[in-house]
Amino acid sequence: MKILSAKQVHEADNFTIQKYGITSDMLMERAADQVFNWIHSRLQGNPIKIHVFCGIGNNGGDGLAVARMLKEHDYNVVVYVVNYSEKRSKDFLINLDRLKERKLWPEFIDENLHLTSIGKDDVVIDAIFGIGLNRDPEPWVVKVLSHINASGAFVLSVDIPSGLFMEQAPSSEENVIKADVVLSFQTPKLSFFLPETASYLNHWELLDIGLDPEFIYNAPTEYQYIGKPEVAALYRPRLKFSHKGTYGHALIVGGSYGKIGAVQLAAKATLTVGAGLVSTYVPACGYMPLQTALPEVMVITDEQNKQISAVEVPEKVNVICLGMGLGLHDDTKIALTNFLKKNKLPLALDADALNLLSANRQLLKLVPEGSVFTPHPKEFERLVGTWSSDFEKLEKAKKFSAQTKSVLVLKGAHTICFYNGVGYINSTGNPGMATGGSGDVLAGMVTGLIAQGYDVLAASVMATYLHGLSADIAVTTIGYEALTASKIIEGIGAAFVELFKREQPQQQGQQQQERAEQ
Ligand SMILES: NC(=O)C1=CN([C@@H]2O[C@H](COP(=O)(O)OP(=O)(O)OC[C@H]3O[C@@H](n4cnc5c(N)ncnc54)[C@H](O)[C@@H]3O)[C@@H](O)[C@H]2O)[C@H](O)CC1
Ligand SMILES: [K+]
């Protein structure tokens, strides 16, 4: 799903209005109708007090329209207009008149604040600023936002929490509404996915307001949100007359004394995601544990016992994963340097391979184009230096991917794969994955998909999605705490199956019946 910029959303509005011969206030009515239905289906006429805070732009217009619909259904509504500018939008004014026609008179809030108290059991609808926010709110408006935040009431934000920019960090925490739920129109907003800005919302849902799908399809976007349909479309079916050679031969290079388990996890993940053959190259101390734990995997050992001092690549290997548990020994640095000087195969670079590259930057130029880097934020910082905001981090990530002509898999709560100027934001995963070895599993999965013939971008996006999905499935039975990297590998099969699961016919029947009864 594409993530549009504010400018593109406004263009999509205009395009939709012209193509379907509707007016902008009809589009606003659709948006408000969807928000109202969402609330009404949950509150079911509950007389709880609902405070609707509106701005003076179209987000405020949405709020006024929702307030009218709530009033028409006898909800206990109070409406406020946060009067931060005289430049009221046309559709705000239309909806202000419609509200007054229903004898609902908003309270206007200006610099001489008179703030009505909000009970902690009340509901607030936040429609003060939408995606038109282009500067920090004035101090008195911040006081209104703080009053709402301090109330303890359930806050529902329309489209985006007021005060949150689409593509920029707020300058202060108090400038932004903290929303329990955001009902966002048509496409998610980039700020919903970044650690710094996602903290302003607990949960978001999309409401389809019927913006033209053709416009959205053709819009060039810098970010996409990756869900099941996008990943299912990447899947390459296994062929009936195929054999192990059809699915590639991956080599995992890593391990040092005490860290052979990292290679074990990566190799097992590579196999489990479907690679035809998997070999490992490890220090001699890794021989017994690997041969014992993974009978399917071939093991080549270095002449050194505790760390590798060279890299030997067996014939017919078509992708190499490098770095897990590798350590930073001088022997290993020499091994990496000599290897990179002759290697032409695509690489998946993780963990200490990234740390060695950060400490020896001249080696970066030797990484072949079309490789994959899988850093967590600290490893990425070692590669590119610090950043002042998450948005700057994204720019650095995009630049790094362009300079190396490779995929950058920037790991986090929403892992983002960057390639060719586009960031692909993952939708799966959970906090249980913050556990040792889960990164080794991801690198192994990327490698296993490349081995089978997936291109590097498809392999990175799909591996990231399945890795998170496997964990999401696992936590439904074992909870977050008991999730381990090994459990993520065990669930890869279930994640593949889930990718193609359709609704059960019985459930479909039930839903049809429910619809018929409504
Ligand atoms: N396609 C859709 O998604 C639709 C969305 N709708 C709603 O419209 C808003 C966007 O409306 P817009 O009028 O462009 O912006 P705002 O409501 O956010 O109004 C802001 C308004 O105020 C000015 N401004 C910006 N920052 C400040 C500031 N710090 N202080 C004072 N004034 C400021 C700015 O110039 C604007 O004029 C979207 O979020 C949806 O809620 C439509 O209803 C349907 C289609
Ligand atoms: K809002």
From TrEMBL:
Its EC number is 4.2.1.136, 5.1.99.6. (6S)-NADPHX binds at residues 58-62, 130-136, 159, 262, 325, 376, 440. Binds 1 potassium ion per subunit. Its cofactor is Mg(2+); K(+). GO terms for biological process: metabolite repair; nicotinamide nucleotide metabolic process. It catalyses: (6S)-NADHX + ADP = AMP + phosphate + NADH + H(+); (6R)-NADHX = (6S)-NADHX; (6S)-NADPHX + ADP = AMP + phosphate + NADPH + H(+); (6R)-NADPHX = (6S)-NADPHX. Keywords: ATP-binding, Isomerase, Kinase, Lyase, Metal-binding, Multifunctional enzyme, NAD, NADP, Nucleotide-binding, Potassium, Transferase. K(+) binds at residues 59, 126, 162. InterPro entries: Carbohydrate_kinase_pred_CS, CARKD, Nnr, Ribokinase-like, YjeF_N_dom, YjeF_N_dom_sf. AMP binds at residues 411-415, 439. Residues 227-499 form the YjeF C-terminal domain. PROSITE patterns: YJEF_C_2, YJEF_C_3, YJEF_N. The keyword Transferase applies. Residues 9-217 form the YjeF N-terminal domain. One of its GO terms (molecular function) is metal ion binding. Belongs to the NnrD/CARKD family. In the N-terminal section; belongs to the NnrE/AIBP family. Homotetramer. Catalyzes the epimerization of the S- and R-forms of NAD(P)HX, a damaged form of NAD(P)H that is a result of enzymatic or heat-dependent hydration. This is a prerequisite for the S-specific NAD(P)H-hydrate dehydratase to allow the repair of both epimers of NAD(P)HX. PANTHER family: ATP-DEPENDENT (S)-NAD(P)H-HYDRATE DEHYDRATASE (PTHR12592:SF0), ATP-DEPENDENT (S)-NAD(P)H-HYDRATE DEHYDRATASE FAMILY MEMBER (PTHR12592). This is Bifunctional NAD(P)H-hydrate repair enzyme. It comes from Croceivirga radicis. The lineage of its organism: Bacteria, Pseudomonadati, Bacteroidota, Flavobacteriia, Flavobacteriales.
